[in-house]
Design goal:
It comes from Solea senegalensis. It is a multi-pass membrane protein. Its main location: cytoplasm. One of its GO terms (molecular function) is zinc ion binding. By secondary structure, the protein is an all-alpha fold. It has one domain. The chain has 8 helices and no strands. Helix 4 runs parallel beside helix 8. It is elongated and about 55 Å long. The chain starts with a helix and ends in an 8-residue tail after the last helix.
C-alpha cells in the first residue's frame, strides 16, 4: 500500500492521473470515447426525467419529486462537465483538468442542494400533502431504474480511468436513483398512513444534506490540488 501511494504521489507530481501508468494509449482513448457516449446518453435521458419529475412535483405537490427533478438537472450539468473534461483527447490523463472539473462539480452540488433544502423545508413548514396516482409511480420506478444503470456505468468507467469527476457524476446518478425510489416509497406510505405526510419532505431534506456535504468535500479536497497542478497545463 505504501509503495502504491508513493507511485501515485509521483505521478500526480507530474500532473498526471494514475490511469496514465495503468492504461496503454489506445486503451485510454477507447475508454474516453465510451465516457463521451455514456455522458451524451445520460444528458438526453436525464433531461427527459427532469421534465417528468418537475411535472410530477407541480401536479402532485411532491417534495421528493422536486428533489429528484433538481438532482436530474444536476446530473445533466455534471455530465456536461464530464464531457468538457474528456473533450480533449490529449488531456485524458490530465490531473489539472480533472481537478478543475471536480471543483466546478462541487460548486454545482452546493447550489443545487440549497434549492432542494429550501423547497423541502418550505413543504414541511406548510404541511404540503403529496397526491398519489399511477403517473407518480411510473415516473419514480422508471427514474430509479435508469439512474441506477447510469450510475453503474459511470462508476465502472471512473474506476478504470481513475477519474474523481466521473465517479462524482456516477454518485449523482446513484442519488437520483435513490430519490426516484424514495418518491415511490414515501407516496406508498402516505397512501396507507396519511399521518406520515412529512416523510416526503424529510427525504428531500436528507438528500439535500447529502449533496451539500459531498459538494463541500469536493471543494475542500480539490481546490488545493488545482493550485498545486496549475503549472501543468500543457495538455490544454
Amino acid at each position: 500500500m505504501d509503495q502504491e501511494m508513493k507511485i501515485t504521489d509521483s505521478i500526480e507530481d507530474k500532473g498526471l492521473l494514475e490511469s496514465s501508468v495503468r492504461l496503454k494509449p489506445h486503451e485510454a482513448q477507447s475508454y474516453r470515447k465510451k465516457v463521451l457516449w455514456v455522458s451524451w446518453f445520460s444528458i438526453v435521458i436525464t433531461i427527459i426525467l427532469a421534465v417528468a419529475a418537475f411535472t410530477v412535483s407541480i401536479m402532485r405537490h411532491s417534495a421528493s419529486a422536486f428533489g429528484f427533478a433538481f438532482d436530474a438537472t444536476l446530473d445533466v450539468l455534471s455530465s456536461i462537465i464530464v464531457l468538457w473534461r474528456y473533450s480533449n483527447a490529449a488531456a485524458v490523463h490530465s490531473a489539472h483538468r480533472e481537478y478543475i472539473a471536480c471543483v466546478i462539480l462541487g460548486v454545482v452540488f452546493i447550489l443545487s442542494s440549497l434549492c432542494i433544502l429550501g423547497k423541502s423545508i418550505h413543504d414541511l413548514a406548510t404541511r404540503l400533502l403529496p397526491e398519489v396516482d399511477d403517473f407518480l409511480f411510473s415516473v419514480s420506478i422508471i427514474s430509479g431504474l435508469v439512474c441506477v444503470v447510469l450510475a453503474v456505468m459511470k462508476f465502472m468507467l471512473g474506476k478504470v480511468l481513475t477519474s474523481r469527476a466521473l465517479l462524482t457524476d456516477g454518485f449523482n446518478s446513484l442519488v437520483g436513483g435513490v430519490m426516484g425510489f424514495s418518491i415511490l416509497i414515501s407516496a406508498e406510505v402516505f397512501k396507507h398512513e396519511p399521518m406520515v405526510w412529512y416523510l416526503d419532505g424529510t427525504v428531500g431534506v436528507l438528500i439535500g444534506l447529502v449533496i451539500l456535504a459531498y459538494g463541500v468535500k469536493l471543494l475542500v479536497d480539490m481546490v488545493p490540488r488545482v493550485l498545486q497542478t496549475r503549472n501543468y497545463e500543457r495538455f490544454e
